[in-house]
């Protein structure tokens, strides 16, 4: 297990875990956003992020460097998310939660298939977002990339929090999610608020995908699937209806999985997804509302 | 020309015909009451106006046909305080008030109205940061009214504001409504079970019976009419 002299290694692994956790957190907040607006878990969230990442990759192939490609892709994803909601979710807006969930599963396969059709199945690689040099803090070498990813993830989530907390539109979106009937009576265009939620979630997903891709070295059209699983686990751990919970849960999960993979030799990287699944099951059995949530399951 | 006019308005919930052709009007700066037994169609009448139920017939407001979507009706200048008050329980009093002004663009006017609302309902000023769900029934009714006023409507729809409140709280509530009507010319269409109170606070009234207008007239007249009181109002 962990030796006393190994604390520098542990610190490095914790930061690396927070970095992965930050990516999960970004995607998890996107899940929470749509869950609150639409009442369903968006199973296509990861694939949408993958699609955004491939769009950005295409831009980098056409002379854009990473950050301009990032900005363009996040903006386009926002528009794409709104368009997607208008086209496929709006028609089932009043349908049951199960119907909407099935539609998102349909979107999962369509987007995945479309990405294979548009881009060849060969693996891609993304230019780095941050310097690959390490930085020494208190004598320990940390990866600048890890710190950068943590920073961008937290910044994205904070911006979103600020938007919901302090803007008129953000308030209207929260109201629409809490009580659509009353919102309509006060003149809020609820249907558009839901579309806007999908736009924001898709943009946030793009941030997650664009943070996750470069450190992988190479990735293909399925690269977001395990990350979606981790984001689910993080969101469930924190409480699927709580954005703060999703962030805390995801960061904790990232650190936990990273330490587990590093220090418990038989887990390695292969059993991480099984560990995430175990977290999901454990939370649902022991505390369905998660750490910060209101209630995930209501018995009828 | 009246501010609001319903002509032959009918509405159904599936096979159930809840309104069978209602004619009703509210004049400029008038308070009009809608009375009737449980299930008579009072709530449905208000919902027909705010387009939260599908209707046939005509609803004309300020000379124009009202659009068929509740958010558009709100934008046209009608504030609806529904049964159960329609406040946002999880949001703070402050947020509820700000939501009331969602359709408005005049920032300065909104700010002024916000301050006036807190002046008019001091308890809301005290509870500004509290979640609306934690307020008492009477406080919530004040919040519902304050929130509706933030919209600066020309017509206010109230659905059984007295429900579940102590007589004194109800009296206070109706005093404020009368004040708004006198001082600011606000038009009000109020649904009530409490016929005595509603007739005392309105200039005209409609009594509904199974989806139709059974009796209509000046509130003072209706109050005086022994037989009307007996057969329709139950007091
Ligand atoms: N959502 C609904 N679905 C089906 N039927 C409904 C619905 N809402 C109302 N009704 C029916 O329509 C009729 C009129 O209802 P409405 O709510 O307008 O009555 P009301 O006069 O407001 O009664 P109350 O005094 O009890 O509030 C009733 O028979 C009621 O059962
Ligand atoms: Mg009613």
Write a short abstract of this structure.
The complex is a heterodimer of chains A (300) and B (235). Chain A is mainly α and 300 residues long.
What are its keywords?
heterodimer; A: 300 residues; mainly alpha; ABC transporter involved in vitamin B12 uptake, BtuC; two-stranded antiparallel ribbon; disordered C terminus; B: 235 residues; alpha/beta; six-stranded mixed β-sheet; four-stranded antiparallel β-sheet; 40% helix; 27% strand; globular; binds adenosine-5'-triphosphate; binds magnesium ion
Description:
The complex is a heterodimer of chains A (300) and B (235). Chain A is mainly alpha-helical and 300 residues long. Chain A has a single domain (4-286), classed as ABC transporter involved in vitamin B12 uptake, BtuC. In chain A, 71% of the residues lie in helices and 3% in strands. Chain A has helices spanning 7-38, 45-61, 66-89, 97-118, 144-166, 168-178, 180-185, 190-216, 225-238, 243-263, 272-286; strands spanning 134-137, 140-143. Chain A has a two-stranded antiparallel sheet with strand order 1-2. In chain A, strand 1 (134-137) and strand 2 (140-143) form a beta hairpin. The model of chain A is unreliable at 296-300 (pLDDT under 50). Chain B has helices at residues 42-49, 70-76, 93-100, 107-120, 122-126, 137-150, 167-184, 195-201, 219-224, 226-233; strands at 4-13, 16-26, 31-36, 55-61, 64-65, 78-81, 155-159, 187-191, 204-209, 212-218. The mean pLDDT of chain B is 93. Chain B is globular, with a radius of gyration of 17 Å. Chain B is built from 10 helices and 10 strands. In chain B, the strands form 2 sheets. Chain B has a 6-stranded mixed beta sheet with strand order 6-7-8-3-9-10, sandwiched between helices. Chain B has 235 residues and is of the alpha/beta class. The A-B interface holds A 168, 171-172, 174-175, 178-179, 181-190 and B 50, 52, 69-71, 74-75, 79-80, 82, 86-88, 90-91, 95, 98-100, 102-103, 147, 151. The complex binds adenosine-5'-triphosphate and magnesium ion. Magnesium ion is lined by residues 42-43, 83 of chain B. Magnesium ion binds at residues 42-43, 83 of chain B.
């Amino acid at each position: 297990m962990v030796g006393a002299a190994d604390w520098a290694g542990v610190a490095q692994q914790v930061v690396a875990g927070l970095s992965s956790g930050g990516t999960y957190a970004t995607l998890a907040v996107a899940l929470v956003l749509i869950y609150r607006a639409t009442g369903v878990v968006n199973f296509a969230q990861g694939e949408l992020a993958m699609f955004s990442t491939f769009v950005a990759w295409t831009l980098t192939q056409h002379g854009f460097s990473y950050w301009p490609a990032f900005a363009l892709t996040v903006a386009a994803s926002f528009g794409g998310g709104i368009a997607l909601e208008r086209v496929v979710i709006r028609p089932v807006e009043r349908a049951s939660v199960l119907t909407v969930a099935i539609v998102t599963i349909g979107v999962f396969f369509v987007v995945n298939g479309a990405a294979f059709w548009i881009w060849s199945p060969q693996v891609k690689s993304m230019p780095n977002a941050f310097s690959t040099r390490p930085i020494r803090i208190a004598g320990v070498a940390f990866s600048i990339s890890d710190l950068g990813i943590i920073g961008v993830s937290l910044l994205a989530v904070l911006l979103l929090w600020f938007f919901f907390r302090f803007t008129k539109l953000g308030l209207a979106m929260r109201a629409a999610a809490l009580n659509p009937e009353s919102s309509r009576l006060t003149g809020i265009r609820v249907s558009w608020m839901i579309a806007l939620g999908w736009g924001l979630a898709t943009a946030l997903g793009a941030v997650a995908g664009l943070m996750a891709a470069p450190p992988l070295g190479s990735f293909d059209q399925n690269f977001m699937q395990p990350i979606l699983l981790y984001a689910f686990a993080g969101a469930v751990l924190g409480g699927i209806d709580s954005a703060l919970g999703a962030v805390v849960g995801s960061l904790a999960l990232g650190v936990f999985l990273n330490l587990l993979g590093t220090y418990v030799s038989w887990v390695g990287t292969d059993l991480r997804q099984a560990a995430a699944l175990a977290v999901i099951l454990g939370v649902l059995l022991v505390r369905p509302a998660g750490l910060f949530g209101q209630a995930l399951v209501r018995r009828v | 020309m009246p501010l609001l006019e319903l002509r032959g308005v009918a509405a159904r919930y599936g096979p159930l015909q809840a309104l069978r052709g209602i004619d009703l009007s509210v004049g400029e700066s008038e308070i009009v009451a809608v009375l009737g037994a449980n299930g008579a169609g009072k709530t449905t009448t208000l919902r027909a106006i705010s387009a939260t139920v599908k209707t046939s017939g005509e609803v004309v407001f300020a000379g124009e046909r009202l659009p068929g979507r509740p958010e558009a009706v709100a934008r046209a200048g009608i504030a609806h305080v529904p049964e159960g008050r329609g406040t946002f329980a999880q949001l703070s009093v402050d947020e509820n008030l700000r939501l009331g002004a969602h359709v408005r663009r005049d920032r300065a006017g909104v700010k002024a109205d916000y301050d006036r609302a807190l002046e008019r309902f001091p308890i809301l000023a005290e509870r500004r940061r509290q979640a609306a769900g934690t307020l008492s029934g009477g406080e919530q009714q004040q919040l519902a009214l304050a929130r509706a006023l933030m919209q600066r409507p020309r017509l206010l729809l109230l659905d059984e504001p007295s429900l579940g409140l102590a007589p004194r709280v109800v009296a206070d509530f109706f005093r404020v409504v009368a004040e708004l009507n006198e001082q600011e010319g606000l038009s009000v269409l109020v649904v009530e079970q409490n016929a005595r109170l509603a007739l005392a606070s309105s200039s005209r009234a409609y009594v509904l019976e199974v989806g139709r207008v059974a009796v209509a007239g000046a509130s003072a007249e209706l109050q005086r009419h022994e037989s009307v009181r007996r057969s329709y109002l139950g007091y």
